[in-house]
Design goal:
single chain, about 210 residues, mainly alpha, Ferritin, about 0% strand, globular
Length: about 210
Amino acid sequence: MDIRILSRLDRLLDRCERALEAIAGSPLAQRRSPANGIAEVEMDDTDRRHAAGLMRVNHTGEVCAQALYFGQAALARHTDNREHLLHAAAEETDHLAWCAERLQQLDSRPSLLNPLWYAGSYAIGAAAALAGDPVSLGFVVETERQVEAHLAEHLEQLPAQDERSRAVLTQMQSDEIRHAQAAQQRGGIELPFPLPQLMHLSSMVMKTVAYRV
């Protein structure tokens, strides 16, 4: 059987397709949504808008995760690390699909700035990969730790009756912990000051804006 070698144009088109799917497409989850089987409950307008704002932030976070992983995988120096990053990105696609579905159920929409978030995150991921696989994997570790922390905050901030959103975020949190551990085991290093602090600052900006826009 002939094996086709992808050209640079093929790879560019593939990256564009992935970007469009993350930003404006309807990604298909490989796993069943954790919210399935949990009854929808009535919420007043204030609680529904708040739940939707939180889920919009998490959806944007998953758009950023897709971009980060693909940017890192594109310039990863070792094939096994590239495959690891792409596998993690596939699991993050589940998160993206679950958040998109939950936003629809809450009669809301994704952030209008997702193209900007994606482009910036892809550039950051590529820059991390250029610094070498240990730094790139360390970036995954720190990113997932910060995501885990903000998911914990959202689990506390969700309306008490919104068990469907809570189920989705709980599973996402478990996956993020596993991704951080896997990247650390593969040789991810502790990022030096002030990178973690800058990452936290940028995530705060994203969360504040995406909650509303």
